[in-house]
Amino acid sequence: MDDNRYTKRTIMKEDVPSAFLNENRHVKIYLPPGYNELLTYPVLYCQDGEDFFNFGRTATQMTKLILDEGLEPALVVGVDVDKKIRNEDYSPDGSRFAAYCRFFAEELVPYIEARYPVKQDAASRVIAGDSLGGTVSLHIALEYPQLFRRVLSLSGAFFPSTRERIAREGDLSWLQLYMLVGLQETAVETSRGTFDFLEENRRTLELLEAREADIVYEEKDGKHIWGFWQKELPGALKLFFG
Which residue positions does the secretion signal occupy (predicted)? Predict the structure, then answer.
């Protein structure tokens, strides 16, 4: 994996201004091998951008899949978050949740699409996150189906407030989801208490299936850590960009 063909890549850095959050949000943009501004590319948008790049090794994994397995070249946009207020941004009951969702859909996406040669249709955008990042990604898709209809969730923190939101939808046949959860995630300690992520994902899956969402759901040996998610990320990338 550390072959220099895979680790040599171009990462751009941007500070995206947000009126909704009243701040600039730091963003990294991975440009795929052979990047050409005369072409257009699909995009993977990631919550916890720093973690997706550092712990998920997303840029390296994407490069390897493009070079070795013919994956469609795509940009990766990693949106950084201040871990001290991550819950406020990502949790449905967080004080900044509504503003963050609006920033993502109404400010970030237009910013990227004005500056980079990306495909501007919902089928070409994937929104990804781990834990609460998976939660906010699903909520953004539900609120902005014209922008996002493909969600990549790594051990999403899908609690009752998210299921209540899903229950308000009648037909989710337009929504494509990849859901991964670890079999050892039955007592995950978080800043808000200890939760059974496995059971919460199973309950959420039932609701989504009842509304005919298009779901690839996987339960595998693993804990609520990037060591687990990193290993499974290539399969998810191939699902959406293969």
Answer: none
Rg, Å, the chain Cα set: 17
From the list 108, 120, 111, 109, the residue with the least C-alpha distance to 42 is: 120
Q: Are 180 and 154 in contact (CB under 8 A)?
A: yes
User: Using the 8-state DSSP alphabet, how is residue 31 labeled?
Assistant: E
List pLDDT tens digits, range 189-205.
Answer: 988 889 999 999 999 99
Please identify, in words, the CATH class of the domain defined by 4-241.
Answer: alpha beta
CA distance 89 to 173: 28
Name the nearest CA neighbour of 58 among 229, 175, 242: 229
Pairing state between β 176-182 and 214-220: parallel
| Helix, strand, coil shares, percent, the chain, to 5 | 40, 25, 35
Q: Encode pLDDT of 150-164 as tens digits.
A: 999 999 999 999 999
Tally of CA atoms within 13 A in the half-sphere of 178 that contains its CB: 19
Contacts of 48 (CB under 8 A, 6+ apart): 78, 79, 80, 81, 86, 129, 130, 133
Q: Which helix (H) or strand (E) holds 66?
A: helix 58-69
Tokens of 60: 């390296």
Burial class (CB in 10 A: 0-12, 13-18, 19+), 200: buried
pTM beyond 0.90: the answer is yes
Kindly tell me the sign of the dihedral angle through the C-alpha atoms of 165, 171, 174, 179.
positive
